[in-house]
Amino acid sequence: MEIKMHPRGMAFLIFCLGSGFVSVVYLNRGDWTFLWMYREKSQEIPISKNQTEHWLTNWFNCRSQDTADKEPNTLQLDDWFHASARPEVSTLTDWSAPIVWDSTFKRSVLEDYYSKRKVTVGLTVFAIGKYLDKYLKTFLISADNFFMVGHKVIFYVMVDDLSKMPLIELGPLRTFKVFQVNKESRWQDISMMRMKTIGDLIESHIKYEVDFMFCMDVDQVFQSDYGLETLDESVAQLQAWFYKADKEKFTYERDPQSTAYIPSMQGDYYYHAAVFGGTPLRVFNLTRECYEGIIKDKERNTEAIWHDESHLNKYYFINKPTKLLSPEYCWDYKIGKNSDIKNVKLSWMPKEYGEVRSNS
Ligand code: 5GW
Ligand code: MN
Predict the structure, then answer these.
(1) Crossing angle, helix 280-299 and helix 308-318, to 10 degrees?
(2) Are residues 148 and 230 in the same domain?
(3) Does any ligand 1 atom lie closer than 6 A to the CB of residue 153?
(4) Of 140, 150, 169, 197, which shows the fewest CB atoms inside 10 Å?
(5) Are residues 125 and 201 in the same domain?
(6) From the CB of 236, is ligand 1 less than 6 Å away?
(7) Ligand 1, pocket-test mutation among 131, 185, 187, most atoms within 8 A of CB
(8) Is the pTM here over 0.90, yes or no?
(9) What is the predicted pLDDT for the residue at 35?
(10) What is the pLDDT of residues 13-29, one digit of tens each?
(11) Cα 124 to middle of ligand 2, angstroms
(12) Is the pLDDT of residue 58 over 70?
């Protein structure tokens, strides 16, 4: 028996059990892992000590590469993010979270990092009542074309009528899972109950299936690549109409009776509830906190001014997001020409409230 300390600090215990096979036991971060490596009996070439070492080193390097590949957060901000690439806009929050604008990221570095890790990204979307007829097909076709191209994606689609699910053919690496949900009678509740349903879905499916996820409104359309640069622990979207506004203009909930209350002159940004994301765990925490806030408000007979969005803003005020997306990631063309907006990745569909909200 030989005991070797690997330069990386792992202890190798090598048992040579006859000439038939070699068994390696190694200590990896406190877990004992047993690996049996068989050497073909027919191979009569004797393996010298040096050869064994060489082979083991190669094997170890592959293994440690493999293990490193599964460790999150080994990519440093400087590796992929150029904060100074867009000097005319703000690219860092005061808690040092990147604000991702077009051309602030090195796509090849991100592709290399996440391809090795074989990430799967989830995307939840609700299409209830007239929103199902009007928006879902366009949303899904555009997401198929532009959302995380080249990576595994699962679309979680919540509808109130399964028979109306548009049967579109998705590209490779994409699948959808369709769920039937009840239609709430009040429209405010359709929007707010998404927080409850998303949390339940994370527990039942999403946490087992994806590494990162987004939750989006259906009344939007992808316009160009919406990629790996958007992935992080906790991701918030800057609301297009407010990204340059002063704090006191933000439409936060200002009534102290509501759990979503943010006092005037406080807050960081006004975030858009049409897009939020992160790891399943972080999104789960967000949806549960928002849902609890919504329920407490109902018990107090109050309702926040912008419903789930007010609660989302309160949540991100308390729990700072680790990444922000510029308004290029959820742009409203109605705002008109704006030189900050270089490349729109997702845009609002025209609001035809008279049509889609009637009888809903
Ligand atoms: C209906 C009437 C008023 C408000 C919302 C709805 C509604 C929302 C609906 O009837 N069906 C539906 O599926 N929704 C989901 O909630 C859609 O995914 C929609 O994108 C999301 C948020 O509602 P929006 O898009 O009308 O909200 P805003 O903030 O974009 O105006
Ligand atoms: Mn919307």
Answers:
(1) 120
(2) yes
(3) no
(4) 169
(5) yes
(6) no
(7) 131
(8) no
(9) 32
(10) 343 344 333 333 333 33
(11) 14
(12) no
